[in-house]
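Q: My labmate handed me this sequence with no annotations at all. I'd like to see what the chain might look like in three dimensions before we decide whether it's worth expressing. Could you predict it?
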Amino acid sequence: MKKLSFYLLIFVLLVTSVSALRISGDKVKFNIPFEPNYTLSKTFTVTNNDGYISSYDIFPIYMGGADLREYFTVEPNKFEGVGSGDSREFKVTLNLPEKIDYPGITETWVKVKTSKVNSVGISAVPALAIRYIFFILYPFKYLEWGFSAPNLNVDEESSFRITMNNLGEPVINSAKANIEIIDMRTNNSVTTLKTSTTYNIQSKETPEIKATFSSVGLKPGQYKAIATFSWDENISTEEKFFRIGQMDVVMHNFTRLFEVDSINRMFINVSSGWNNKIKHLDAKILIYDLETNQELTSFKALSSSLDPWENKKLEAYFDTKGLEKKEYKAVIEFKFDGLIKKVEGIIRIDENINAEIVDEIPGKFNLNFSEVLTTMNLMIFLLVVFLLINVYLLVTYVIKKEKKIDPEVIIRVKKLQEKYNDLYIKDLMIKRGWDEPTIDKILRKARK
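A: Here is what I predict for the chain of 448 residues:
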């Protein structure tokens, strides 16, 4: 807590470096399809949020494609001595030529940069920019296309989509696609889809064609879609992988070696085979004697959930006290969204093995009452505790600030007094939430 006031003062004096400069206008990003002799004039406002007097330079910079800086005019292109909180207006005028021999994407920024900063301690040199993004059509036929093949579940339908963008000046007469579906387990073709045909695609037009795909009768697993896209005299192909899912939790591995007479951390590696979220996943581990098949003990993993196709490690704690050094049968029982799945495996309890040991079972109350204290409830509880601790620290800091001024504050104010008068410093600290009696006290101590 002793250094808290120092860090808060640094925050007060320097936090504006993060947002020390602001540009406002109708918008600050322009997407402009090229047109001969195109003109655009916009007025913007630059605001000094630095807390100090600052100066600004405003100029176009080249970002890629054709260099269009010569077609920008900034008036005025410099501001001197802008006070804290003050704003200035400037105008950016764009006058494009008759022709630009550089088809494709071109980008130019108009940058506002701090040229002079009167600050104390660590400081940044703030800069912001207005973006101008131009697209210049190709003089010949030029069509870009993309292909999407979304995941789906068994017995569902989905749409495979072909998106197009005519980036050339000529009209594209027609476009269509065939999509072949390959089962990756057998590498066999299971079906071929045909999209509709689109005609007379104009310059800058972005049509979409699609084909409906049904997973009825197909097994869950990974598939590949190969799209053969035809437009006018051109043919090209693109591949996408997708999955057909079913409601399932797949166990890949789990911890199998445990230290005798100890509390062992256990991990269970699982993944979802479902294209939707599995909201509630519980795992119970039952330990059996291999010879008698008698259940000896059981324990639970922490409750969890699984996003579509997610891989995750479930965590559990196995207390081996009272169990002999030998092999056992472990049955892991998964419960998820109304389904139950059991997986068996052999584990071994021994000594001096590579096992992760803990002194006690974390969140033991959680394990006994997992239906009540879910992972989400635990997170909410921890968040409330975190907030209460911060409220306590803040109240304690305010009380201490009223009773005693941290020497680090005095040192920082002394540095400010080397460049600014007390009235300016006082005004700055009032704006940052300091009360006047405390400020006067700090200023007197700093002058000694």
